[in-house]
Amino acid sequence: MDPVTLLAILTALAILLVTIALGGNLLIFFNLPGLILVVGGTFAVTLAMVSLRHFIHSFRVAAQVLSHTDASSPELIEHIVELARIARHDGLLALEDEEIGNAFLKRGIQMSIDGQPPELIRARLSNDINLSLQRHEIGQRMFRSIADVAPAMGMIGTLIGLVQMLAQMDDPKSIGPAMAVALLTTLYGAVIAHAIALPIAEKLALRSEAEAMQKGMILEGLDGIQTQMSPILLRQMLMSYLPEYGRIDPSLPNRR
């Protein structure tokens, strides 16, 4: 499990709670009607912008973000190079008994073993990449919509509270507490938008870019395997997908 995203969000919320607690009574920042208005209203308005299927799917995608473990691209490159070595020495059929953990790579290898032409394999896998990017884009838009709607619902709650406060101006003692309650909905909206929804949307974007790049690297590896490219040359080509600091030391002995 990737703890970074979840830990960062929880840390931000914890800092907020600690700051509030150090400044006074924590319970005065809890207002049930305000929470219902902001949370319920945000979800309802966001649902009106997308389909129910996309709404539910976006939360599933967010759950994957919080539970996803980054695949090691250097290790994946070495695996691809090893598959290329086996295919070059023993033929593509020899890859049938190889254990392949990456589902995208496994699909491409199986299509190669089945004798499908390289251009068809590339076309189908490229379409898989594009569809995956579209699904991630829907999730990003949904959480960015939440980030847009939540502050607006918070402002609506504040306006409702101000109207209710002004309607009770005959009691000066109630003005202060009423104003505090009115402002809480703005706080709720800002927290939902900037401490939860936006971080998830941005992490989805990063995951999408990383996944697309890795799958592009796999496509290049599959081409190398099918054309029986030299494993050494294939490794050098695939290393270009990694940042300089993540590349394997070229001084290390290469496999045959």
Please give a handful of descriptors for the protein shown.
mainly alpha, 256 residues, 75% helix, single chain
Helices and strands in order, then pairings?
Blueprint: H1 4-23, H2 32-49, H3 52-67, H4 73-90, H5 103-113, H6 118-166, H7 175-226, H8 231-239
The total of beta strands comes to 0
Distance between the termini: 35 Å
Q: Helix tally? A: 8
Order of helices and strands: HHHHHHHH
- The average pLDDT score comes to 85
Helix content: over 70%
Question: What does this entry show, briefly?
Answer:
The protein is an all-alpha fold. It is built from eight helices and no strands.
Describe the structure.
- With 256 residues, the protein is an all-alpha fold.
- Helix content is 75%, strand content 0%.
- It has helices at residues 4-23, 32-49, 52-67, 73-90, 103-113, 118-166, 175-226, 231-239.
- α4 (73-90) runs antiparallel to α8 (231-239).
- The radius of gyration is 26 Å and the shape is elongated.
- The two termini are 35 Å apart.
